[in-house]
Each structure stands twice: as C-alpha cells, then as structure tokens.
Amino acid sequence: MYPWIQEGTMKQLKKQKKTSKINAKKSSLQGKLFKAFGIIVVLCLLMSGFNFFSMTFIHNGTEKIVEKESKALIQSEQLRYNMAQQISSVRAFFLYRSGKYQSEVAQLQKDSEILKQGMLQLSNNQEVENVIKQADNWERELNENVIKPASAGMKVSAEQSFKKLESQSENLVAQLDEIAKSSEKQISDAGAQIISSGNTMRILGLAISILIVGISAFLAFNISKSITLPLKKLSRHLSEISKGNLHHEPLHYKGKDEVGDLVESVNGMNDQLKLLVGEIFKASRQVGEQSGHLLHSSSEVREGSEQIASTMQELTSGAENQASSASQLSGAMADFLEKIQTANEASASAYTTSKAAISQTSAGTLLMTKSVDQMTTIHDLMKGTVEKMKSLGEQSKEISKLVAVIQTIADQTNLLALNAAIEAARAGEHGKGFAVVADEVRKLAEQVSSSIVDIHSIAANVGKETDEVTHNLNGGYAEIVKGTESVHKTGESFAVIKVHIEEMSAGIQEMQEHFQDILLNGSAMNSAITNIASVSQESAAGIEQTAASAEQANSAMEGIHGNAESLSGLSKKLTETVNKFTF
C-alpha cells in the first residue's frame, strides 16, 4: 500500500551504511573543543611567558640599581666623609697633642681602606680607580709627612705638609662629588629606563590580553553557533515528529561530528516511523475486517447457546426450587420442633421463675411500704429544717440591724469624746482629768467601732451562708417531695406487677401443656418432608449436569464474542491513532 515509504526507507538505510563508514574519519565536538581550548591555553602560556620576561627584566634592572649603583654612591659619600674626618682629627691632634686623635686617624684610615676596596669591586670605571690611587697616596703622605713628624716634635714641618695635603683633600673630595653625581645620574637613567620598559611591557601585555579575549570570544561564538543552530533545527524537527507530522524534508548538516551523526539518526528514525506507521495502518485495517466477521459469527452462535441455556436454566431452576423448598421445609420443621422443645423448657423455667417473682414481689411490696413511711418521716424533718434556717436568716438580719445601731452610738460617743477633749483643753489645768477620761472614752469608742466592723462582716457572711444553706435545703426539700411521690407511685406499681405476674404464671402453665402436644405431631410431619426432599434432589442433579454443559458452551461463545468486540475496538483505536500521523 505504501511502496514509496519502503523505497525511501531502503534508500535511507543504504545512505546510513555509507555515512557510518565516513563517520570513522569525522572529527568530534570533543576534538573541536580541545582545539579551541588548546589555542586559548597556548595564548595564555605566551602571555605568562611575556609577563615572566617583563618581570625578570624589571627585577634585574632594579637589582642592579640597589646592589651596585646605590652601594657605589653610598660608599663614595662615606669615603668623602671619612677624608673630612681625617682632616678634622689631624687638626685636633695639632691642637691638643693627644694620642687619642692619632688613634682616630689610624681607625679612619682602616675604614677608608674597606670603602676603597668596596668601590673597586662595584665599579670598573678608570676615574674611580684614579681617585682611589690618589686617596691612597694622600693617606700615605699624611702618615709620613704629618703624623710621624708631629709625633716626633717637628710641628712646623708637619703643619706645612698638612696645608699641602688639605688642598689635595679638597681636590679628592671634589672628584668624589663628581663620582657621586655620576652614580646618581646612572641610577636616574636606569630607573627611567625601567619605568619606560615597564610602560611598554604593560601596554604590550594589555594588547596581548585583549587579543586573547577576542580570540577566545571568537572561538566560543563560532563553536557555540556550530552546535546550537543545528540543535535548534533538530529540536523543531523532533517537535513536528512528536505532533505526528512525518511528511517533511530530511535535515542537512555539513559538519562531520556528533551533531551530524545525530541528524542522520533522526532522519533515519523519521523514515523508519513512516514505514512502521504504514504497516500498522495496513494491519489495523485487516484486523478490523476480520474482527467484524468474527463478531457477526460469534453473535449468531451466542444467541443459539443462550436459548438452550435459558431453557435448561428454567428446568434446573424448577427442580432446584422444589428440592430447595423441601430441604428448607425439612430444616425449618426441625428448627421449629427444636424451638418448640426450647420454648417448652423455657416455659417450665418461666413458670418456676414466675413463682419466685411472685414471692419477691410480695417482699418488695412490704419493703416499699416501709420506704414510703421513711420518706414521709424525712419529708417532715427536712420541712422543719428549712423553716428553722429561714428563721436563722431573719435573726441574722436583725443582728445586722442591731450592729448598725451600735455603730451609730459608737460614732456619736467618739464625737462626744472629741468635744469633751476640746472643752477640757479650753478649761486648762482644771480640765486635764476630764481630758484623760474623754481620751479613754474616745479610744473605747474607736475599739467598739472596729469591733462592730468585724461583727458586721461576720454577720454578713453568716447571713450569706444562711441564704445559701436555705437555698440548698429548699432544693433538697423539693427533691425529697419528688422522691416521696416516686416512692408512692413505685408502691402502687409493685401491687399491679404482683397481679400481672400471678396471671402470667397461670398462662405459662397452660402454654406448657400445648407445647407437649405440638412436639408429638411435629415429629411425624418432619419424616414425610425428608422423603420428599431426597426425591427432589435426585431429579435436580440430572438437570444440573445438562445445564452445566450448556452454560460452558455459552460461556465460551461469550468469551469469543467479547474478544471479537475488544479486537474490533482496538482496531478502531489503532486506526484513529495512525490517522494522526501525516505522511
């Protein structure tokens, strides 16, 4: 039905075989990434080498300045200062004639020798060597023509020689100044050269860094573009496939890497899906046709089987109902006789119990009469208690009134005592005794007032509690009244119960006699029912075997019919699913 699908698929399979041979020569994405990363690493190594060279150059220039030029400058300055100190010490020796200054000169000359040796080691300049030779001659003449004659007492000759040496020392100091200035100029030139070289190297380093960043960005952009663009096309292609659209042109990719392999695989998958969906559509149509025929045949066979099964079912049902009814009747009769026997025994027990109940009811009636008499006595006592509590409440109220009167008297007494004290104060000496009495009366009135407050509080509490007790007693009294009425009614109920129990006992005795007659007739009836049940069961057994065979055949055809319907539904669903694809 779909020869063009099969032909396209075969071509695609041949193409995949050819491309699988070519894939061995393809370069992978990993190789591209490693190449780009290798270029960046090489550029970084070049940058590192350039930085190392620059730092080495600057370090060597700085080390030369610090280790050589600066030390030479310092030593020339120290040598100049040393010669000045020698001149000063010789002058002090002429003035004071002390061996101390002679020792200072000797020490200074030793220090001068160390400085001169250091200058010769640091400098290869001929001018420096000439100055050092002149300094050696100057120190030798100072020792021979000044220090030794002065020590021997030839002061005039020593001073004349010293004046000549002073002029020579000034010339040496001037030469040393020139050497120092030359060293300073060399240090300045070397520093300027280092700074200029550093600026140049910094600019070159910046340019190399920008170049590395540019190359890295270029490589990253091209590599990411070469990966993402084909993947986006591939994603759109797969999205169309997922929607069922298989009718589109195959993807093309010029690269020779994993993305190309993926594109080829997706193209092959698309072609395989076309072939697969076509075969499924063809098979689903054939299955639909065959399932329709099978469904029609199974329907006809099932209808015949159902008619046979229905007839046999009716026969089986009648025989089973007859046997079941007989069995149920036999069982029910046996249960009935058993229950009659149980009822007979229960009636005998009930008769005995009713006799005991009559006796207990008589005793209960006597106890209820006594209870009524006791409840009447409690009712009278509680009534008297309630009346007494009411009287107690009234008396507590009277006490409160009396306490209020006493409080008023105490207040007036206190006021009179205060007035008496005022009058006694006016009387002066004659009223002192009266004032003492008035003060005692006032204190007594205050004590009475304080006590009256306590009495009033107690009386109020007593009145409150009396009211509460009265309320509770009223409630208890009401409950006792209700209990008395309930006891009276209970006594009346016991009398009625006694009459009914006596009547029930007579009825139970009569019922027991009838149960005995029923037991005798029921045994004969149960034997006849058992015989009918056995015959019905034998008839039902044969009918059930025939019905079972018909049921099996009907069940098998129903299974075939159900499978045919299920197969037809699956075929329709499969066709609907395949129709979603676009070829």
From TrEMBL:
The species this protein was found in: Metabacillus lacus
Keyword Transmembrane: yes
Any one GO biological process: signal transduction
Transmembrane segments: 36-58, 203-223
HAMP domain location: 225-278
Record carries keyword Coiled coil: yes
Family: Belongs to the methyl-accepting chemotaxis (MCP) protein family.
Keywords recorded for this protein, A-Z: Cell membrane, Coiled coil, Membrane, Transducer, Transmembrane, Transmembrane helix
Coiled-coil annotated residue ranges, if any: 155-182
UniProt xrefs under PROSITE patterns: CHEMOTAXIS_TRANSDUC_2 (PS50111), HAMP (PS50885)
Protein's name according to its UniProt entry: HAMP domain-containing protein
Domain of life, source organism: Bacteria
